[in-house]
Automatic annotation (TrEMBL):
Residues making up the signal peptide according to the UniProt record: none
Protein name: 4-diphosphocytidyl-2-C-methyl-D-erythritol kinase
Known pathway: Isoprenoid biosynthesis; isopentenyl diphosphate biosynthesis via DXP pathway; isopentenyl diphosphate from 1-deoxy-D-xylulose 5-phosphate: step 3/6
Domain of life (superkingdom): Bacteria
EC number(s) given by UniProt: 2.7.1.148
Organism for this UniProt entry: Nitratireductor aestuarii
Active site: K15, D144
Domain GHMP kinase C-terminal: 219-276
Upper classification of the organism: Bacteria, Pseudomonadati, Pseudomonadota, Alphaproteobacteria, Hyphomicrobiales
InterPro entries in alphabetical order: GHMP_kinase_C_dom (IPR013750), GHMP_kinase_C_sf (IPR036554), GHMP_kinase_N_dom (IPR006204), IspE (IPR004424), Ribosomal_Su5_D2-typ_SF (IPR020568), Ribsml_uS5_D2-typ_fold_subgr (IPR014721)
């Protein structure tokens, strides 16, 4: 172990698709999306320490479900960055992942881990990369990885790589997953209508109620196809609605759903009630990072 270099840490926030419209499909099969996305202060935690050899370890509630071999998106990000800087001497590192986000659950855990690890590696290795250099470099790891670099509220368009940052306030939120992993491809296969209406024009978002008002004119087009595969998604949404969420919707391709509440207290109360009723579900009260907040 090399001494003297401090370890680096970064939150890998959950990515929440507040709205997700499927607006078309390219000839190569890729779906065209329009999505308003925010990131929560609840997430995984990635750490990096200098070491004799590069390795990855995981702790946390979902550690046993995540692969630790070269298929892990953190190691894939490491290898991608290393291959982008072949002439640089890049020290080996010990990477640690605190896995708090459920796997294959529509809140971008792996994508966010890859983005967080890349930021730490670029800093540790002294690579002169800004966020806007790093984001496109990481696209080969997945369409959702670039947006996780800045982890600020945004609208993603195209296949997810065209990013427009938008102003959003902090939103009190509850995340709920019924404990059923759901891979993305079968959800898109179950989606019948691919040319849905685009997102309505954005309005000025000052309060949580402004955001809820706009969201009520929007959808997640993957919610019905996902619920046809995992009916428990409908139970989760019903629970969030019965706890008076201002909006209750599925994120990404599911199965995690979110509720937006008017206050942190309401969100915490709802989370406690739902967790008591459904001890096997994953439930977390959190809030989104506002546009002007920096990822801790
Ligand atoms: P998205 O919202 O982008 O669809 P997701 O939440 O559905 O993401 P992930 O949790 O990122 O999906 O997992 C997708 C797959 O990636 C899983 O099958 C998992 O085995 C693999 N994977 C690789 N690295 C990671 C990681 N660091 N964390 C979670 N899953 C990972």
């Amino acid at each position: 172990m090399t001494h003297g270099s401090p370890s680096l840490h970064r939150l890998a926030p959950a990515k929440v698709n507040l709205a997700l419209h499927v607006v078309g499909q390219r000839a190569d099969g890729y779906h065209l999306l329009e999505s308003l996305v925010a990131f929560t202060r609840f997430g995984d935690r990635v750490s990096l320490m200098p070491a004799e050899a590069t390795s990855l370890s995981a702790t946390g509630p979902f550690a046993s479900e995540v692969p630790l071999d070269s298929s892990n998106l953190i190691l894939r990000a490491h290898d991608l960055l290393a291959s982008a800087f072949p002439s640089q001497k890049l020290e080996p590192v010990l990477l640690s992942l605190e896995k708090n986000l459920p796997i294959a659950s529509g809140i971008g855990g792996g994508s966010s881990d890859a983005a967080a690890a890349s930021i730490l590696l670029a800093r540790h290795w002294g690579l002169q990369l800004t966020e806007s250099d790093l984001a496109p470099l990481l696209l080969p790891l997945g369409a959702d990885v670039p947006m996780c670099v800045a982890a600020r509220p945004l609208i993603a368009r195209g296949t997810g790589e065209e990013l427009e940052y938008v102003r959003l306030p902090r939103l009190p939120m509850v995340l709920v997953n019924p404990g059923v992993p759901l891979a993305t491809p079968p959800v898109f296969r179950a989606l019948q209508k691919k040319d849905n209406a685009p997102l309505p024009p954005l309005s000025a978002f000052i309060t949580t109620a402004d955001v809820i008002g706009w969201l009520s004119e929007t959808r997640n087009d993957l919610e019905a196809p996902a619920a046809s595969l995992v009916p428990a998604i409908n139970d989760v949404l019903a629970e969030l609605r019965s706890e008076s969420a201002g909006i209750a919707r599925m994120s990404g391709s599911g199965a995690t759903c979110f509720g937006i509440f008017l206050s942190d207290e309401e969100a915490e109360r709802a989370a406690t009630t739902i967790a008591e009723r459904h001890p096997s579900w994953f439930v977390a009260a959190t809030s989104t990072l506002a546009s002007d907040e920096i990822v801790p």
